[in-house]
Write a structure and sequence with these properties.
By secondary structure, the protein is mostly helical. It contains eight helices and no strands.
Length: 203
């Protein structure tokens, strides 16, 4: 594994530690979903990287894409009360996954259509969350809200990820820049998670 992979593992490990340490403070809130998700992400990153490097198979990355969508959908449903919309989103995501598997398979290529759909959902959900926050009394103390930091990290990550993904999809040779940008985006994402868990522990 390279420096990039070790960086991901280190960030995920630190985020797991913060999540575990502050568990009692948020275990009865929607934030609980991120502790098992982060533990899974840490284990999956190690195993998926090893398998991808040695066997050129990306199945575990694709499993991660599907599970992460379910986690994000649950998260935004708890924050925004999506009601019927969540089932529509789930159906559209399932259709995107089926399309990717049918057209390219699931073992080697990434499920790009599904990832792009997930990115759009996160971006729209984040914008709606912040619009809702601005209209609430909680906006005065926004920096004390764990959800603010978690959603901020997700929004920053996907704002950066979407154009990078599109550039790669259009055939631009940006491999070195892409690798550096993804590391930076993960640093911002997991850094926001860490702050979110820290804030949760102070409430």
């Amino acid at each position: 594994m390279g420096i990039q992979n070790y960086t991901y593992l280190a960030l995920q490990f630190i985020a797991c530690l913060f999540a575990l340490y502050n568990w009692k403070s948020y275990k009865n809130t929607a934030l609980w979903i991120f502790l098992p998700f982060l533990i899974y992400s840490l284990i999956n990153e190690f195993l998926a990287t090893y398998i991808a490097l040695n066997f050129k198979i990306r199945l575990l990355y694709n499993v991660y894409i599907m599970l992460s969508f379910l986690v994000y959908l649950y998260w935004f449903d708890r924050l925004l009360n999506l009601k019927m919309i969540k089932w529509i989103l789930l159906g559209l995501f399932a259709a995107a996954v089926i399309y990717d598997i049918y057209s390219k398979g699931v073992m080697r290529p990434l499920l790009k259509t599904a990832v792009n759909f997930q990115s759009i959902m996160v971006l729209v959900g984040s914008v709606v969350f912040f619009a809702k926050l601005l209209r609430s009394k909680e906006v005065i103390h926004y920096q004390q809200l764990p959800a603010f930091w978690i959603v901020s990290g997700m929004l920053i990550f996907y704002i950066g990820y979407v154009p990078l993904s599109l550039m790669v999809g259009m055939g631009f040779h940006v491999d070195e820049f892409y690798a550096l940008a993804i590391v930076l985006l993960n640093l911002l994402l997991y850094g926001s998670y860490i702050i979110g868990f820290y804030v949760a522990g102070k409430r």
